[in-house]
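Blinded run. Sample ID left blank on purpose so nobody reads anything into the name before looking at the predicted structure. Input follows.
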Amino acid sequence: MIRLLVFVLSLFSTMAAAETMKLAVTTSFHNSGLSDVLLPVILEDTGLEVQLLVVGTGQALRLGEAGDVDAILVHSRAAEEAFVAKGFAPYRREIMYNDFVFIGPQSDAAKIASAGDAADALTRIAETEAPFVSRGDESGTHKKELSLWSAAQLDPAQFGSWYKAVGAGMGASLNTASGLDAYILADRASWLNFANKGTLALLFSGDPALFNQYAYLPIDPARHPHVKAEAQRTLEDWLTSPKAEALINGYRIEGTSLFVFNAEG
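Blinded prediction complete.
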């Protein structure tokens, strides 16, 4: 009983002493389930309570520009570099990566499973006008999708009703694709953690163009003096630590790794 009392008092003391910070993260990262693994350990190791704002990359960047968060963790390198160039963050630091994959109905009317590359897969979908669900929300996944259409020399603005931009997060978009038996671009982690697969299956992956890097960007205190600079550094140090490496590389679903740690010291 005494040991239990000491433990409870210690727990309440830790909770009372915990510093908080706001971190905007992508829906794909949150949907992967990795945040549920990392956040309790971060709190235990550092006393830092990380409060997540789960949004698309575009919205995360806007929150950072406004100083409404202390840092962001996103996955759209061109947008991140522009964010740094504008002075909203002093730098971007790569943390981990996975890849994007094409999901679609097992019947695979567009035959993308035998595509030569990502551009070929999208060309086949467009030629057959098979239902395709787009995030349509300026997220990192949406930006990647648009860049892949561009590489295939195709313009979604010219597509018919088979192309459905839903303006939603990764989980909601996958649910829509499942309901419509449609093709969709998803990150591998969200797909593996997605429960409502229906008749959908992973049909195409492996093209280097589908590489998906996540990076941490602290909001510049010179731009927004109220942001928590010390908490930013504490979180960054933890995210690039051996403990984080072990947890990120060790996170699996059905025996499959979802992320690969690649932060440099």
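Unblinding after everyone has recorded impressions. The chain is about 40% helix and 25% strand.
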